[in-house]
């Protein structure tokens, strides 16, 4: 049974060997000759509020993993020989049987209503880790624990705190991105069979984890050129951590390299997203590469197959020639989309630009009058806002507002994980549509998964499949009680409160203006010359469908994290009691001990003449 | 025991008077080490000062526009700074008036922060001086500009410009915490921009466009709640270091003096000022509204007193002070919890902690209890002996062991019950709008006073009638007994005595004793309980009632009883209202509608306490002094 399931993407070598034995039909398909490749890209986009969005993406893909029919044996080298692919990641994947891994460190909030949607799919504050694990041997729990602990060591982060009380297994969100990704054909028999592989999803997040240079350094170490050459040489931590938003991610997944998904590779995508506030000091919206990063690119990474800087030009409305881009891209500016969705893009191929000159790569954007006159406003499809209601330390409520700005109904999945110390009352769950309470919740909430919390062992998970009406504001409210914790369960900073992580909304959104890229991480594959033909082909093939329903992208929208204050005892009281009792005991003990041990003697007046000698004697006795 | 309780009252009074004395207060100190007041370099520079002055002109220009227009103008100003801003409409219909306004608020999202915590800087359009709060609003805008430059904030900063007096900020705070209402009485628009949990707030009150002599701190909140003392300490340290200004409590400037007595009197005045606001339950500024939501807040008030010798300061100094204060609060790692939440301030740099000021009010409560206990014992004691043992010719009266006179609690409890019902009725009468023609709060109060006097009259008259009846019955019995005796033979003396004894056994203790016991016990309960909730209110009630309630009793001379009743009437709520209106030279109806307004808008406890607790006790006391003696 195992051997006959042909589309297994098993990362363990043993199983691969097993599947190699099976062979049925033969078909001639191109075999990727390069077993490993590395691509580096930097996407820059001036945002409407004067900030500059920068997205570094480094893609390493390894092996030509073929299905059983076309297996050529090369892939069996996977995880045995490392060239570009970082060994530390490879070993983790291998030993914990990880099929897919997504780890994101984020500091700051992504302002959806101002900035649209980012290219990087995860934007929730703190650390987010989710992985699909092979459950063949039913060791998911141990593997997950091992994975979190190893990654914790690798990235110098407190990932080991993702334990059972935090980990969840969402039923609708965080689907497999690998073989189910947009480039695969979802209806082939291969993919159907895929579902028989026992796989388990594990998801955990730490909302209050700070991200700093100690996490960046190991991240840079995974790159083939480190930060010595190429785009990564711009990564200067002083500037990166002086931004409005900073996010750093590692994604590992297996992707299809051809139309029918017969050739596959394992892809490691490392991204850094930073939003610079260039208007902060003098109000000028002008920026330059060297001004943003205080570093320059002198050469592209020699190991990189492609090395490109992509500038998404501002979407100016009506007024032409508001800005100038220096230097003008050698290949000219091309545009994506049309009408309101039109996005002009300038691409610089560093492998072509840099070798001719000795000077570093320069890039700057100047606005006429240092500020834009008119830019097209952004209307993100879905904006969500979650907040606590009520006050006091006994009970509270949670309110979630989801605004659908699209002119069509949107299917979305809402995932909320709440710690066990908030006792959720599901009967208080109520829905308001545009300010009016709804009687028939079925129209809106099509499915609901709820996992009640268990004290001190697992969180409450609420997952809703929603159908959001066009141009609407949907508001959910639910009440909870706050648990009185044991005094040892409080953190050292007890009066700060506890962080409650973000909620995630996953939705298929039509491509509206204001999105930085289409298709998330896959967007940049066009620039990797990897399967540009494939992407373009699929795009043109989908053209007819597109005309009808328009293209959609799967987006994840993250809400802000929240702070909840639980009833906190006055911790100085135990301290007072301890000091008090200690004082009393020591006083009591001291005086009693003194009374018991001290010997009172009458000093004879006759020895007044020999006082000094007597004292000397006493001293001598004592020293003895 | 009664003497002891009077001694305790004296002790308590002296203790209270000693509280402002220098030796009883300590110097304040910053307890929360994370605050580090004034340690950050201030970024507010001359350019920002110029910006503030430009904003001042803008604010002056829009100040007299209608609410909605000026709110929108301000919203645009905040948006131009790059802050997320919005407006909020609210409507509030009380039983006497209808208030409508528009608040403006803006959020500065701290770069790279997770937005779980926030600080609030607020100013209302109207200052305490009833003029436009121009400088404060200009300051908010200028600070927004300054903060936008920095990247070192860990907490979001919310700027709120509220309309009206307290109701505007209250509407905003309610909506921020998701408690907005959509009824006819109260309508608050939900907020569109939000941040995290608010950790602390500074409310600005800098009226006019000029310079200031000193900075006043207002800190008393609704129902006597107080912010953490570290809020005041922080401003205190900053005002001595990085932004030197003269600091004082409230809006009273007192010259420095070495004179002991003068110092004492000044401290006493400051303390009384604080206690007055706490007892009444009215916040001294908009900061008081935050405290309900567990947000520590104070109001900073610019005092402009021409001729005062201290150096005058302008917006530049205010900007530096505020920025430094915000930076300091931004340093907080936890919610403010280190320093005191219960304190009395005798000076901006001296405090008296709860451990020192609680004993006198507890002693006061205990003195009530002692008095009540002694009366309770008295009510069961037998004035005469029950049994007489014949010893030869003589009879020696002997008390029967374990015998007690029965206590009749009916009159006392029913009187008290009626008084409470009357108080409650008054409360509902005052707070409900009936829609009758010419309906005013004063009229309603007069009506309830009428009801109360009816109650007193009926209770007193029935009691008197009842006593008459009992007396006539007993005299009839007596006469019958003597008649029998004369008919019979031997010792008249003896039988008369036993008859007397039997009489005494029949009649329980006088009703007034029982009623007074009840009043005293309840007073003790109220004073001690309230001292934990609102110390100042407890002290003022305790001090006011302790002597009259303890000393007054029905007298054989009607004149004395009536004088006592008059004194009690003077300290009854309507009496106190008259006194207050005389003191502040206002119309009594104004005082009443002010109390009503405070209750309806802010939910202060003064009216409920007066109606449900204080007045019933007072009514019962009036009835008590008018009851028959025996």
Q: Report the strand count of chain B.
A: 14
Radius of gyration of chain A: 31 Å
- Overall geometric form of chain B: elongated
Distance between the termini of chain B: 22 Å
Helix content of chain A: 10-25%
* Count of DSSP-assigned helices of chain A: 13
Pair of chains with the largest interface and how many residues each contributes: A-B, 42 and 25 residues
CATH superfamily assignment of the largest domain in chain B? Zn peptidases
How many β-strands of chain A, per DSSP?
Answer: 25
Q: Beta-strand percentage of chain A?
A: 25-35%
**Annotation field: number of helices of chain B:** 19
Low-confidence stretches of chain A: 1-33, 70-76, 180-195, 532-548, 613-624
Rg over C-alpha atoms of chain B, rounded to the nearest angstrom: 31 Å
What oligomeric state do these chains adopt? heterodimer
- What is the CATH architecture assignment of the largest domain in chain B? 3-Layer(aba) Sandwich
Strand order of the largest sheet of chain A: 5-4-3-6-7-2-1-9-12-11
How many domains make up the 3D coordinates of chain B? 2
| The CATH top-level class label of the largest domain in chain B | Alpha Beta
Could you explain the architecture of this structure?
The complex is a heterodimer of chains A (about 625) and B (about 625). Chain A is an alpha+beta fold and about 625 residues long. Chain A contains 13 helices and 25 strands. Chain A has 2 domains: about 15-380 and about 510-560, no CATH class; about 380-510, Mu homology domain, subdomain B (Immunoglobulin-like, Sandwich), CATH 2.60.40.1170. In chain A, the strands form 5 sheets. In chain A, strands 5-4-3-6-7-2-1-9-12-11 form a 10-stranded mixed sheet. Chain A has a 5-stranded antiparallel sheet with strand order 14-15-21-17-18, with no helix packed on it. With about 625 residues, chain B is an alpha/beta fold. Chain B has helices spanning about 1-20, 45-60, 65-80, 135-150, 165-175, 230-240, 260-280, 285-290, 315-330, 355-380, 410-430, 440-485, 490-505, 510-535, 535-550, 560-570, 575-585, 590-600, 605-625, and strands spanning about 25, 85-95, 100-110, 115-125, 155-160, 185-190, 195-205, 215-220, 245-250, 295-305, 345, 350-355, 385-390, 395-400. In chain B, helix 7 packs across helix 15 and helix 14 (about 510-535) packs antiparallel against helix 19 (about 605-625). Chain B starts with a helix and ends with a helix. At the A-B interface, strand 14 of A face loops of B.
